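hey m, so remember when u said the tokens were messed up on ur end? i reran from scratch. heres the input so u can diff it against urs
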Amino acid sequence: MTDSAGTSLGPLPRTHALIADDISQHIERLIVTGELAPGSSLPPERVLAQTLGVSRNALREALTRLAGRGLIDRRQGSANRIPRTVPLTAALAGRMDGVSAEFRNAAEFRAVIEPQLVRLAAARVDTAQLDALSELLDSGGDDDAEVSAALDIAFHTAVAQATGNPLLAALGELTASWTVAARVYSHLDADGRRLSHDGHSRILAALVAGDPDAAEYAMRIHLAEIRQLIERSGELGTDAANDT
């Protein structure tokens, strides 16, 4: 079974949230992006706490939350492990009940950051990176919410890496970390998965053309469509709850 010792786990990216929130979101991102592979083990809690620069109490709280959502397996006397099958949609989408502010924050954050990332990427992306983006686009996921959500995250992370700037690439990874729940929610139905694929297709076409203006515009349209989808889904969910 693969050990995660070689994975870059720290230091912990900090926000204004509680430390346990940041820890759980950080580890969640590593799981969603595949940096912590299914079946791999986490380092011992003492080592992991030192690597992240956090207290063991805060770490244990975060791990308990992740275990409750099915993202890690915790067994007394053995290492914490990533499940071989990670229930991303069920675990992550369930967090969104009653937290519409998180949707708005995620959408606003992405609207500010990602159009600028893709604009720079359009001027710098190389052939190998374009081929990798094309492979992600052709990888399917139309009928599988979890596969589609993972491909979405991989696509946007690859766009950030195509800027050629390691700091912006890291920002792209943080974007995935801070907005993962909203992303997963948008892939729960076929309309969301179709919108994601179509938006990525337009973005990739602009990148292939090396057109920064078109790439930025395609990203803005894509993010706006996803935001509208999520907002409509929230309204439908509220209406259904009021009818019961």
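this time it looks ok to me. DSSP finds ten helices and no strands in the chain. if urs says something different then somethings off w ur setup not the seq
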